[in-house]
Amino acid sequence: MLKRNKITIVGAGNVGATAAHWAASKELGDIVLVDVVEGVPQGKALDLAQAGPIEGFDVSITGTNGYDETEGSDVVVITAGIARKPGMSRDDLLKTNYEIVSSVVREICSRSPDAYIIVVSKPVDVMTYVAVKEGGFSRNQVMGQAGVLDSTRFRAFLAMELGVSVEDVSAFVMGAHGDSMVPLVRYSYAGGIPVERLIPKERLDAIVERTRKGGGEIVDLLKTGSAFVAPAVATIEMVEAILLDERRILPCAAYLEGQYGVDGGYVGVPLRLGAGGIQEIYDISLSDDEKAAMKVAGDAVKELVAATPKG
Fold first, then answer.
1. Under a CB-based contact definition with an 8 Å cutoff, are residues 101 and 78 in contact?
2. Which string of DSSP letters, residue by residue, matches 52-117?
3. What is the pLDDT of residues 112-155, one digit of tens each?
4. Catalytic residues, which ones?
5. How do the domains of the chain map onto residue ranges?
6. Domain 6-144 is of which CATH architecture?
7. What pLDDT, in 10s, does the model give residues 225-281?
8. I want to staple 134 with a disulfide (CB 3.0 to 4.6 A). Which of 87, 105, 171, 175 is the partner?
9. What pTM was estimated for this model as a whole?
10. End-to-end distance of the chain based on CA atoms, in angstroms?
11. Domain 147-306 has CATH 3.40.50.300
């Protein structure tokens, strides 16, 4: 009998629950939704399961407050953690999410040591580093989701500016998630045409800045929440690439050992993702300005790692 893939999503908030929705709709495998709040993962799992007969997806969806049901997972997505609140220092946020992610990783490692780990918890570059150190996983098993999200925002804004289909726009973003991300305008195209030939520099600069502030723009609009649909879809694109061995070239947070001048930290870079997790990291040619921006990103991640309890 053919074994179905098993996907565990830790954190049943907006991002986790929406990721479960997309994974189920694509029938990527059976899903286990984990959360500490009693009733929340169970209720969301049941609600999603009841959509199956209408949409025609047929997978097992389990909600739980523990980890026993996650045993033997093929992919684990970690969205658990808190957002920074008014009056909370960066160190407070790091300490709290460090403890949450560390605990999750230890639970997962003891039950699914061969799983591929996709970290979404913030700050993602640091929490991905925490995951690989705490879990004892190999570096090809653990990656952070940020570049896929940043890149889809960049592509969306470029398509809006040009008034063209998003399907014809290719672009990607490297570096850390946040202000130190590095949108690569030189490697961005619309229908194979470099966007630098289609959009004036001042408008491109504005689009780059909007991409850097993309998450904050949504927070400002929502007032009481943050983006969750695009982050969830970006995460499932990575899950799909691994489980179906699609060998996609995607920008993800990966552990670097000298590439792009970064040694010993997680930074967003283009890599090939498929069976076995991270199959290859591409060390592409960058301009002096882009190299400098990548160094800033790497230094920023190292600074945050140093601020964690075991940094």
1. yes
2. HHHHT----EEEESSSGGGTT-SEEEE--S----TT--HHHHHHHHHHHHHHHHHHHHHH-TT-EE
3. 999 999 999 998 999 999 999 998 899 999 999 989 999 999 99
4. 177
5. 6-144, 147-306
6. 3-Layer(aba) Sandwich (3.40)
7. 899 999 999 999 999 999 999 999 999 999 999 999 888 889 999 999 999 999 999
8. 105
9. 0.96
10. 46
11. no
